[in-house]
Amino acid sequence: KRELVPAVTHIDGTARLQTVPENAEENEWGLYRKLIEAFLQLTGVPMVLNTSFNLAGEPIVETPLDAVRSFLAMRGTMAFLALQGTILRTRPFESNVAAAGGAASLVPQLASEFVSETTATSRGDVAGVRVRAVEANAWVDLKDELSLAVLEEVDGEANAAAIAEAIGADEDAVVEALRELYDLRLVHFAA
């Protein structure tokens, strides 16, 4: 079936086949067998492609939380994530703006508590800004100090306009920082 489903082979033409027992309905493979049979009925191809789910440079997803984080990090390149009977879809930043009635009205909430780190050159110029969730090991690079200042003002009550006023920044720049923080999964907005 390589001509019908080219992705079943690696670039070198090899493949790793896995089979599902015929008596799968009687064991732990039951749901997987039903999925394959449904795909066969729809397409005439008696298989599904099972590939690893991870982002470049990251380990393969092993938990539901890993799956959600990787899905969100894909920033809309994957249509949805089916997870234990639930379909998850991402919400574009613009949908949040529309729901809030405009960018200045966006009220961000922290995705989790975080720690930050700002590094400077020997002259005192900022060389980098990064954050990580308290419970995580991976650091996330921010664009600049403004993004960190915005993140530090997020309290779940202040909107973008109030944050801009509090840090003495241009409102449009704060909204762009919120877009970055949203894309990095550091903030979210109430539905």
Q: Can you walk through the features of this model?
A:
The mean pLDDT is 85. This protein has 191 residues and is of the alpha+beta class. The strands form three sheets. The protein has a three-stranded antiparallel β-sheet with strand order 4-5-6. A two-stranded antiparallel sheet has the order 1-2. α4 packs across α6 (171-183). β5 and β6 form a beta hairpin. Helices cover 32% and strands 16% of the residues.
Task: Give a quick summary of the entry.
This is Carbamoyltransferase C-terminal domain-containing protein. The chain has helices at residues 30-43, 64-73, 93-100, 145-153, 160-167, 171-183, and strands spanning 81-83, 86-88, 108-110, 114-120, 126-133, 140-142, 187-189. It is α+β, with helices and mostly antiparallel strands and 191 residues long.
CATH class of the largest domain: Alpha Beta
User: What coarse outline follows from CA principal-axis ratios?
Assistant: elongated
Do you know the CATH topology of the largest domain?
A: Outer Surface Protein A, domain 3
The strand order across the widest sheet is 4-5-6
Mean pLDDT: 85
- Gap between N and C termini: 44 Å
Helix and strand run: HHEEHEEEEHHHE
Instruction: Report the β-strand fraction as a percent range.
Output: 15-25%
Rg computed from alpha carbons, rounded to a whole number of angstroms: 22 Å
Number of domains: 2
Got a strand count? 7
